[in-house]
Amino acid sequence: MTVRLACWSGPRNISTATMRAWENRPDCEVVDEPLYAWYLDHTGLDHPARELVISAGETDWERAVASLTEPWPDGPALQYQKHMAQHLVPALPRDWIGSLRNVLLVRDPAEVVSSYVRSRASVTPDDIGVLQQLELRHLLGPEVPVIDAADFLRDPAAYLEWLCDYAGVDFLPSMLSWPAGPRASDGVWAPYWYDAVLRSTGFEPYRPREVELSPEGEAVVAALRPAYDELHAARLVL
Q1: E strands, the chain, in order
Q2: Structural domains of the chain in order of their starting residue, each with its CATH number
């Protein structure tokens, strides 16, 4: 049976680069933001390529969830699901999530918001995913691992090796590098969001980011800080 590893991130994190790492395995299929079309259709939010995303994806959440959870006896050893936690709006049931092998990928909200507003005119706390990640932490319990992007980038090999063990597969050094360019598995939104990843051939070394925030951005970070601090305190440290 296929192991389904679900990584719940927020925007402007290392989620797409991490997807590249898993896609570079011969025994793994990756799924790029399978709830995005439903999320845009349900919320009415105006994101880049909104209509293209909706038309290319699944707007029925029950069918989307079924594709992520149903038995797959002839599937690959592993499926890596890249999820955006902000897609978990209140109308979406949560009871299916526990059937997956979950991990939370977090990043300091000041860095996220500072990066996010370069692509979007405005931002709210619900756009960043931290509140939904904390909800998942409470829903799934303390056994769900929390990984901070800053820690991960300081030692990608160690964290990937830990995640492989968590998923029940062997670590492969090929996960640490990949050819530049697009993938057939990339969402249709890739041209709008994946510029840096499309140029990448591996994980960038960690470096502190310059943070520039408007008063609106500072208010969003302040609203998210308690949730992030709770997640950060529970993070996996290797």
Answers
A1: 3-9, 28-32, 78-84, 101-106, 146-148
A2: 3-233 (3.40.50.300)
